[in-house]
Amino acid sequence: MAEQAPHVSSCDVAFSPTVRAVQAHKGSRRAYADMEVRGGWQTRITPDLAAFIDAQRSVYLATASADGQPYIQHRGGPPGFLRVLDDTTLAFADFSGNRQFVTTGNLIDNPKAQLFLMDYAHRRRIKIWGEARIVMDDPALVAKLMPAGYGARGEQALIFKVKAWDANCPQHIPRRFEAEDVARILAERDAEIASLKAEVERLRGA
User: Fold this and answer.
1) Which of 6, 69, 130, 141 is disulfide-compatible with 65, CB 3.0–4.6 A?
2) Mind listing the domains of the chain with CATH numbers?
3) What is the pTM of this model?
4) What are phi and psi of 122, to 5 degrees?
């Protein structure tokens, strides 16, 4: 009798045998096993996820060296700097920075990476597992990925192939707002107050 192939789940990207053993010990394995049977985490970028990504101003990128030393780097820009190229591919222009190139070196040795997106205003967070590569010699691609009118120099490009993604619950996420969003809301409020005051004066005059 032929040996049955082991079940493959998108959750395998994070749930190693040791992780699953800890889940069993802590009492959460059954729930996650049921989720895996139902298909596990999504592996393609949905329209809702694409809209979420397009609105983000920053992202955390995690990589590891060949010997497993982890590294997390922040990347930011105007909304839309992180591009959805298709339903399994993300990309962004890597702006010139301190030129340590830790992420670049890590990805040459080990393409496994993760993106962590935080929306503090709406208390949402998205984790995206995948593999990434740096494109150093394609100025046309970098130019295509550069946000219009943004004052930075694109040095290279990063292409991220999605393997799985998961949306976390909002527990313990503090609510924070972008300064420019707060300024816009306050300006709208002040304009409305001014309009109401003008209307009051008009009615008094009448």
Assistant:
1) 69
2) 7-40 (no CATH), 47-179 (2.30.110.10)
3) 0.82
4) -105, 5
